Fold this sequence. Notes:
Blueprint: H1 3-12, E1 15-19, H2 31-36, H3 38-51, H4 55-61, H5 64-68, H6 70-94, E2 103-106, H7 110-118, H8 123-143, E3 146-152, H9 156-166, E4 174-181, E5 184-190, H10 191-203, E6 207-210, H11 223-233, E7 245-246, E8 253-254, H12 257-267, H13 274-283, E9 288-291, H14 297-305, E10 310-313
Parallel strand pairs: 1-2, 1-9, 9-10
Antiparallel strand pairs: 3-5, 3-6, 4-5, 7-8
Helix pairs in contact: 3-6, 3-8, 6-7, 6-8, 8-11, 9-10, 11-12
Amino acid sequence: MTDTDRRMHDSTDGIALVFPGQGSQAPGMGRLIHGHSEAARRTFEEASDVTGLDLTKICFEGEADDLASTENTQPAVLTTSIAFLRAMREKAGEVGENIRPRLLGGHSLGLFSAAVASGALSFRDSLLVIIERSRLMGSFNADRPVGMAAIIGLDSETVRAICEDATLGGHDRVDVANHNEDTQTVISGDVSAVERAMAHAKGLQGKAIRLKLKVSSHTPLHVAQAAEFAEIIREIPFADPDTPIVSNITAELLRTADEVRGEFEAQLKSPVLWAENVRRMAREGVDTFVEVGPGHALARMIKRIQDDSTAVSLDDARENPIPISVLPVRKPIT
């Protein structure tokens, strides 16, 4: 191994790139990186051509309510995340660096960005399947008032019991959707049941916050949609990822095309084990997490889950962003 090879290996060996999902969207997202990266601009143009949506307008000019619609949220967050990824690679290349993460992760929708980053799924195909995913989720919401809420300050087992008590039947139910942190759990389901669960959590001195999402992701409510989505993605080509992806469902490492496809087939109906995702990455030797996409919610959660790690967000730049500038400088091997 040459001195250059050692430096390059050392500079990225302990890094994981992680990608946010729904809930990370905000008006104006991606505007700054779009203005400073040709790769980012091409990404938005490509996404608009593939989807038929004006994603620059949706992201840069859309109101919060517009972005909360899952048909807009999903392609917008995916596109913004890949714009950040490509801009990071573009800027790294300009200074002779090559960002080579040990692992890739993503929160829910963010796992599609991770699949693109790994080469398991093309950006074009990811957009096509996300449009179908958002259509399925949006059609479910059109016929049934659903929503999500974050429960903070109570452990996940207590929240699971709250959901069981708040569920009155198959059409009035709420379930745990995301295990984000040890004392932050997201619940999802019918609005009436979600509201009962929120009231119960507050009665136990927990904090309950309704999320600005018009969906009911990652619960058994979506068994039928998951089956339909599985049929759709069977027609989409997947490749073996060049970097392992951490499964939201099991926290195992996805190393083959079939494993990545299987993850997406089950994702809509299965809870996201985010806290365990972070701990698995740490056990695999990751000590630096770089959030690639809009917002910084994942970076903040990671610091609370794994407080001895470094966690940064590329979206924390506010002027003339050079994304690799947020990466920690490592001492070269001597």
